[in-house]
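PROTEIN DESIGN WORKSHEET
SECTION A - STRUCTURE
LENGTH: 297
TOKENS:
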């Protein structure tokens, strides 16, 4: 079920990020496979979140029943956020991780907090009673019957979407003035901010994609350990609805989601002395990658 959820969310990102779809099409044409390493999602740690649980709890409640457990904590202080990684305990190297970040409203101005409340106050909870029961059964028993899983999958996937109405332009501009990340949440919600291909040599891939004219990040991010190297396409530009001062709905172009690439080297397993893949993240890398959505005009 965890893998099925990842594939649904991956497919959704392919629809929303043309550069990612073109890259995957190239790999398929060449007979190559992709390894979905992780998806990143954003949440809001603030006093007003409508019908949704506060902060990461809105999404962790969907991940824990599917075998995910927190395996890392990453301060993102420059962004006034905190990131946490969640790995799937049964297949930690094979089923994609989730990188769940929280934006801390109390670290911003009162005006910013008021704009966040305006945007999120009417958020709805996408879960229905049947899906809540299915998630509880997964957490209790580790499995459910196929029909229940099939019915629950699209509802769980809807948890990774926007659950509030279109924001006002006034609130959006107030958010963007202090946090490109919160401005992104205002239009995209809890959707995949990015999905990630695990590749053998991210530096060579970056050069190849730049040569093809794709919107690649300028530099590769390197973790403090040197074992994790990341880069990304720049965010796709998307049309999103806003409410203007007259109450009319208007469309504006804003940054959407993007696609990332990561190379992970092996490390020594302290418990066994053998080698294992370094599945960790890096606060500096993450903050550099997050800049891909900081391009709103």
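SECTION B - SEQUENCE
RESIDUE ASSIGNMENT:
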């Amino acid at each position: 079920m965890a893998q099925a959820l990842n594939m649904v969310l991956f497919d959704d990102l392919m629809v929303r990020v043309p550069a990612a779809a073109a890259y995957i099409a190239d790999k398929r044409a060449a007979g190559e496979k992709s390894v979905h390493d992780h998806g990143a999602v954003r949440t809001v740690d603030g006093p007003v979140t409508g019908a949704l649980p506060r902060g990461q709890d809105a999404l962790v409640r969907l991940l824990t029943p599917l075998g995910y457990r927190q395996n890392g904590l990453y301060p993102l202080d420059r962004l006034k956020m905190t990131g946490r990684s969640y790995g799937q305990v049964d297949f930690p190297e094979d089923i994609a991780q989730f990188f769940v970040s929280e934006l801390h409203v109390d670290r911003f101005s009162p005006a910013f907090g008021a704009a966040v409340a305006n945007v999120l106050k009417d958020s709805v909870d996408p879960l229905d009673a049947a899906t809540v029961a299915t998630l509880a059964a997964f957490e209790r028993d580790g499995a459910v019957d196929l029909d229940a899983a099939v019915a629950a999958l699209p509802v769980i996937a809807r948890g990774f979407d926007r659950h509030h109405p279109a924001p006002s332009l006034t609130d959006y501009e107030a958010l963007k003035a202090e946090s490109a990340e919160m401005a992104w949440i205002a239009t995209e919600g809890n959707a995949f901010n990015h999905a990630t291909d695990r590749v053998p040599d991210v530096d060579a891939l970056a050069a190849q994609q730049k040569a093809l004219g794709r919107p690649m990040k300028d530099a590769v991010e390197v973790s403090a350990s040197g074992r994790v190297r990341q880069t990304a396409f720049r965010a796709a530009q998307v049309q999103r609805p806003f409410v203007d001062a007259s109450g009319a709905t208007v469309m504006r172009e804003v940054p959407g989601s993007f696609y990332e690439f990561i190379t992970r080297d092996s490390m020594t397993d302290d418990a066994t002395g053998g080698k294992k893949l370094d599945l960790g993240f890096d606060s500096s890398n993450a903050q550099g990658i997050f800049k891909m959505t900081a391009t709103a005009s």
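SECTION C - NOTES
The longest helix spans residues 2-16.
The mean pLDDT is 96.
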